[in-house]
Amino acid sequence: MSTISEKIFSRASGTRAKANDFVIADVDYAMAHDGTSILAVRSFREMGTEKVWNPDRIVVPFDHLTPANTDTTAALQKDIREWLHAQGIKNFYDVGEGICHQLLPEKGFALPGKLIVGADSHSCTYGAFGAFGTGVGATDMAEIFSTGKLWFKVPESISITAEGKLGKHVYAKDLTLRIIGTLGVAGATYKAAEFYGSTIESLSVSGRMTLCNMAIEMGAKAGIVPPDKKTFDYLKGRTEETYEPVYADEDAHYAQEYHFAASELEPQVACPHNVDNVRGISELSPTKIDQAFIGTCTNGRLEDLEVAASILKGEKVAVRTLVIPASREVFLEAARKGVIETLLEAGATIGTPGCGPCLGGHMGVIAKDEVCISTANRNFKGRMGTGGFIYLASPATAAASAITGEITSPADI
Ligand SMILES: CC(C)[C@H](C(=O)O)[C@@H](O)C(=O)O
Ligand code: SF4
């Protein structure tokens, strides 16, 4: 009677792991990006270990501040490039390849049943493939670099079931925001959320990534969708590694069980400055925006850009509209399909694949009192610029709002 997490931790620790056990687990893949590798490598050096445990199991994408914004950033990135070379780490993705959480799936590292640990809080994204993906701090990452192991408290699990068909202008992001709005930012603290139901099954791999990506926004240690044919089809040709899909037992124990009716949902918006400050779009009073941002590890995939382009086709944006594909693969496919052309014609600006202004570092930071509608996962005070206001929504809602200059439902375009 085990949950998905208990099974993955049992395999990874060589014990019969139950919720609340403390285990030392073998990590299948470890990820650090340009931001956190700097700190992880510093700690690794301080630990005095000479060589990493296994260079083929470490993945390092540069995505947060790329291309480098200052000479200090450039120097830090140079040091990491040299360290990666010296350590023989070949799974390195430099400027323009894309966001870490997009690259790990694309490059075939996010596999069912695996334990994947990233030095980034949104590493829970890999749960979309039936992996246990979770984020840790940079010093914990240094320990993994050194030994390939880390201690964990096996999380209790909750089940979140969504049934029914999403409406025409309603997407995985809207469902995700509704779930977080209902459970709250601490509603799943240190729990693993397993997602079930006909709505989840009908979601594309991309939509499942949006859902699992934001599990951390309700405090979850992981968010997991049981792998199915869509998962296996996506992974075909991306890896040669064998993997074993893991499913929960019928009588697995869940600390809480939640149910959502998808067909009742309208587009959702998370209002400043908390991710659980979620309202149906019809409940919002008129809200002018200064910028629209479509991208990030939450909603910067091909499907997201296609939806935005379908709304922006033949229209002109009324505000600064930034579109940043989540990866080079996404960018290329969007270019081949004419999606990029449509977006450019509508007046959008296309940025280098990466995090862009999500974290407020560069490429679209907003001024005090400015308002940005964003497809990202966090709307914390000051995140995209001191004194700014961030509203989170789906790519469709962001695109519709870009046309009118105020927060607008895609149904109204
Ligand atoms: C910079 C990094 C540590 C951070 C995270 O862990 O999530 C960032 O990616 C974010 O989205 O806030
Ligand atoms: S896109 Fe945003 S949320 Fe995702 S990893 Fe980058 S900074 Fe973090």
TrEMBL record:
GO terms for biological process: L-leucine biosynthetic process. InterPro entries: Acnase/IPM_dHydase_lsu_aba_1/3, Acoase/IPM_deHydtase_lsu_aba, Aconitase_4Fe-4S_BS, Aconitase_4Fe-4S_dom, HAcnase/IPMdehydase_lsu_prok, Homoacnase/IPMdehydase_lsu, IPM_dehydratase_rel_enz, IPMI_cat. Gene3D superfamilies: Aconitase, domain 3. Binds 1 [4Fe-4S] cluster per subunit. Its cofactor is [4Fe-4S] cluster. Pathway: Amino-acid biosynthesis; L-leucine biosynthesis; L-leucine from 3-methyl-2-oxobutanoate: step 2/4. Residues 7-286 form the Aconitase/3-isopropylmalate dehydratase large subunit alpha/beta/alpha domain. It catalyses: (2R,3S)-3-isopropylmalate = (2S)-2-isopropylmalate. Its EC number is 4.2.1.33. Keywords: 4Fe-4S, Amino-acid biosynthesis, Branched-chain amino acid biosynthesis, Iron, Iron-sulfur, Leucine biosynthesis, Lyase, Metal-binding. [4Fe-4S] cluster binds at C297, C355, C358. Belongs to the aconitase/IPM isomerase family. LeuC type 2 subfamily. Heterodimer of LeuC and LeuD. Catalyzes the isomerization between 2-isopropylmalate and 3-isopropylmalate, via the formation of 2-isopropylmaleate. This is 3-isopropylmalate dehydratase large subunit. It comes from Methanolobus chelungpuianus. The lineage of its organism: Archaea, Methanobacteriati, Methanobacteriota, Stenosarchaea group, Methanomicrobia. The gene is leuC.
